[in-house]
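step: validate -> pass
step: tokenize input -> pass
step: predict -> running
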Amino acid sequence: MRIGIYGGSFNPVHKGHIHLAKAAADDFGLDRVYLVPSKVSPHRSSDEYAAEADRIAMLALACGEDERLRVSSFELDHDRVSYSIYTVEYFRSLYPDSEIFLLMGSDMLLSFDQWNRWQDIMKEAVIGAVSRNDGDISQLEKKAEELSRYGRVCLSRSAPVEVSSSKIREKIEKNEDFACYLSENVVQYIRYRGLYGSCQNI
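step: predict -> pass
step: emit ->
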């Protein structure tokens, strides 16, 4: 089997996240893609996170009926910073005979060699990157070539969906329309739960 791991805050999960997961599954021939929300991201402040249960619920809704997409609470179940090496090692233990792909957007690939134990990650997993911004493919190709000295790097050529969770949260706080960036059931969940400063629907 080919197993994809896609980590992030998913705060909230949006169409760009799901596009990346499905594009990776299609382009890299993945049998499953696990979306793994982080407990304490090394890249962000924990103050702006929605509750863990809410992020898990939104991910499950966003994955819909695509049987390739799964949600894992591995990082949420451990009280430590969510370094990717721990997650890769965990999935390697679950699937010792499978090919593991660590999935990421282009912004993460460009800074990958600054990650904690990044060379160890490349010994255990293939790096699978999907563009998140128009016009960055030449940068990605250059970075992939640099990193290929340490392991395999695969690039998806799928057209990017440019959207960020932080901008969505800003729109929600300002009571601006944000529905086009999220699946309908996630929009309904955010409004029902009153997340990110939205007006709660009772």
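step: describe -> The chain has a mean pLDDT of 91.
step: cleanup -> pass
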